[in-house]
Write a structure and sequence with these properties.
Keywords: Isomerase, Pyridoxal phosphate. It comes from Pseudoalteromonas ulvae. It is an enzyme of class 5 (isomerase). This is Alanine racemase. The protein is an alpha/beta fold. It folds into two domains: 210 residues, Alanine racemase (TIM Barrel, Alpha-Beta Barrel), CATH 3.20.20.10; 124 residues, Lyase, Ornithine Decarboxylase, Chain A, domain 1 (Beta Barrel). It contains eleven helices and 18 strands. Strands 1, 10, 13, 14, 15, 16, 17 and 18 form an eight-stranded mixed sheet that branches. A hairpin with a 5-residue loop joins strand 11 and strand 12. The longest helix has 14 residues. It is elongated, with a radius of gyration of 23 Å. The protein starts with a strand and ends with a strand. The mean pLDDT is 98. The chain binds pyridoxal-5'-phosphate. The site of pyridoxal-5'-phosphate has 12 residues, from helix 9.
Length: 358
């Protein structure tokens, strides 16, 4: 019997990629595949994104894994390179680098490479995480242009802090500052993550970089994928492994944190934080057993969770339980667990089986 399984739908993936194209019809698409394609399987997902214009990852190892998997598209390193020794690896593998800090410029200036790297100069317009400052942007740009190791088509980018919130004026401020800074530089631009692709069409430059929405999950506050006609790519499911009757007042699980207010039936389901199900999911988090939504009760343990099936139930051992997927948006589960869907998807552990389906 298959227990914790992440079922991955390639048709949903293709549907979502087409949605990105509809949202940003005039942009090239760099599909973001960091963190094992948000827990969906790096190479398997990349193989199905043949319409992407490029891939983006956070670490060189992720980019090398794509090459080892036979993928030949350009790959953008979203945090750039970390040491000067990385540069020949980038050049040899057709990896493009973000330049977000002067130290990277200095490493480029001090190197002797056998060719020219494609670079994306990132300016910090208000996120205050990565990116050169607006004040140093022009200087760094000119130095990059003059650098022998750098291809003269330097792409320009920034990243939004609050694009998921349509009521937050910060995105317009960041966009305005970016437009002002890039004026007079005839280069390609890339600003939009999923939230900006969906919510801020003015920000779609020559390139967009969607992650979450490709996997069918909403990037916007208090929304689910279906609100933007996205289809969840992952269904996380497992099986019921035990059913038991309990009495009113009986306590369930570690710490005896939940006591039943009535005589009821408890289902034990084979998934836990050892599979990546969030331990912080509290009593009341929805789970689907046999097509019925039931509440999680008591603490999540490493290998199991418990649900209240109610006094009268037809559920039996072996029944399917769905933790999230098309029937139960991961956004909702994340809300219950006090986190974001990104974290739940990335946290799937190697113990979970993957089942790829058309
Ligand atoms: C992860 C990441 C993205 C993708 O963000 P989503 O919200 O998943 O679309 C885009 N740009 C950068 C710089 C990132 O780190």
């Amino acid at each position: 019997m298959r227990l914790a399984t992440a079922e991955i739908s390639f048709s949903a993936l293709a549907h979502n990629f087409n949605k990105v194209k509809q949202f940003a019809p005039n942009s090239q698409i760099m599909a973001v595949l960091k963190a094992n394609a948000y827990g969906h399987g790096l190479v398997r997902i990349a193989q199905r994104l043949d319409q992407a214009d490029a891939f983006a990852v956070a670490r060189i190892d992720e980019a090398l894994a794509l090459r080892a998997g036979g993928l030949v598209k350009p790959i953008v390193l979203l945090e750039g390179f970390f040491e000067p020794q990385d540069l020949p690896i980038l050049l040899a593998n057709n990896f493009q680098t973000i330049i977000h800090d002067r130290s990277q410029l200095e490493a480029l200036l001090a190197s002797e490479l056998d060719g020219q790297l494609i670079t994306w100069l990132k300016v910090d317009t208000g996120m205050h995480r990565l990116g050169v400052t607006p004040e140093e942007f022009d200087d760094v740009y000119q130095d990059l242009l003059a650098c022998q190791n750098v291809h003269p088509a330097i792409r320009l980018m920034t990243h939004f802090a609050c694009a998921d919130d349509l009521n937050n004026s910060k995105t317009q401020q960041q966009l305005g500052l970016f437009k002002q800074l890039v004026q007079g530089k005839a280069q390609q631009h890339c600003l939009a993550n999923s939230a900006a692709i969906v919510g801020w069409p003015d920000s779609h430059g020559e390139w967009v970089r969607p992650g979450l929405m490709v996997y069918g999950v909403s990037p916007m506050l208090n929304c689910v994928g279906a609100d933007h006609q996205l289809q969840p790519v992952m269904r996380l499911k497992t099986r019921v492994i035990s059913i038991r009757q309990i009495k009113k007042g009986d306590a369930i699980g570690y710490g005896s944190t939940w006591q039943s207010p009535r005589d009821t039936t408890i289902g034990v389901i084979a998934i836990g934080y050892g599979d990546g199900y969030p331990r912080h999911a509290p009593t009341g988090t929805p789970i689907i057993v046999n097509g019925q939504q039931v509440p999680l009760v008591g603490r999540v343990s490493m290998d199991m969770i418990t649900v209240d099936l109610g006094p009268v139930t037809e559920a039996k051992i072996g029944d399917e339980a769905i933790l999230w997927g098309p029937e139960l948006p991961v956004e909702i589960v994340a809300q219950h667990a006090g986190t974001i869907p990104y974290e739940l998807l990335c946290n799937i552990t190697p113990r979970v089986d993957y089942l790829y389906r058309e």
